[in-house]
Amino acid sequence: MNEKGQRSINMAIKKMVARMKELQVEVKSHLQAPEDKRAAPGGCQCHDHPAGPTGPLPRMTNPSATKATQTASGAHKSEATPRTEEKSARGRPRQGHQADATRQEETKMQYGKAEDTNPTEKWSEVRGRRAKRKQAGRPDAVLVKCTEEASYADILKLVKAAPTLQNLKNKVQGIRKTASGELLLRMQQSSDPATQELQMAIQVALGDKAAVKAMQETVAVEVLNIDELTTGDEVCEAKAAAIDGDLPQGAVPYMRKACGATQVATLNLQPALVKKLLELGKVRIGWVVCRVRQRIAPTRCFKCMAYGHTAARCRSKRPVSMWWGGA
């Protein structure tokens, strides 16, 4: 109702109500008619949506009528021809084993060979990636630096002819000449105890004609929070007591000052000894419990000041001093 008390019904609503009444009458007459006369000449053959003279009728909501319609529809489907059945099967999406069987039949018709019907044989065992091998350490070496009186060839002859070195030659992997003209004997493995023995034997055999140095892979270790009165010898003694062994000869710590009147000791040791110290984590030196950590220093070139390579392998044509205005 509007403000004037009149009904606000337009022409479209009137036509819709009239059409609903007509449909209601048609449905009642259709339900009251005999069952053999319900299907109109232009209606649907499946009796699901019979069409009357004015157009298709809506879906029936009567449960009994719906059940009867479904029964009639099932009977109609059972009477369908094989061609119609095959066409409807092709229209449906394939699922599960039916899709696999159909695909195998199509493959057999096309290639003359069927796929394996056993689904378990299609799976293959997936193997994980191989673990990366641990990189072996660099082998030890003995460096013989020639003096001005002897040449590289003379030193090599003396080393090969010395009778005291014949028992140690099996420990040597190779011999070569360095870029600076020194003799380098490369051992077969790293942290080899025969390296120190070979160094001492060569030094005795050559005497003052050459300087012999043992080259082993070392790792830098820092000891923090040392008081300012502690010396390097005390640091070495404390480390030797912590690992229950002796430190190699020449293991002299580099002492530098830190904040709070403390010191930091840097020492180069073999990887096996460093591993023991890092597992401990702390070492008592005098009155102080000092923290131990590995010192990681990146590789840097002192020619171009870049990281990742050394000056011996630098490809820069101009040293950094030239960029700074030097000679």
Notes on the structure:
- The chain is α+β, with helices and mostly antiparallel strands and 327 residues long.
- Among the domains are: 14-52, no CATH class; 141-215, ACT domain (Alpha-Beta Plaits, 2-Layer Sandwich), CATH 3.30.70; 219-294, RRM (RNA recognition motif) domain (Alpha-Beta Plaits, 2-Layer Sandwich), CATH 3.30.70.
- The protein contains nine helices and eleven strands.
- The chain has helices at 11-32, 63-78, 82-91, 96-111, 152-161, 194-206, 232-243, 271-280, 320-323, and strands at residues 51-52, 55-56, 141-146, 172-177, 183-187, 210-215, 219-227, 254-258, 262-269, 282-285, 288-294.
- It has a five-stranded antiparallel sheet. The chain has a four-stranded antiparallel sheet with strand order 4-5-3-6, covered by helices on one side. Strands 1-2 form a two-stranded antiparallel ribbon.
- The longest helix has 22 residues, at 11-32.
- The N and C termini lie far apart (105 Å).
- This is CCHC-type domain-containing protein.
- Residues 28-39, 76-89, 100-116 have a biased composition (Basic and acidic residues).
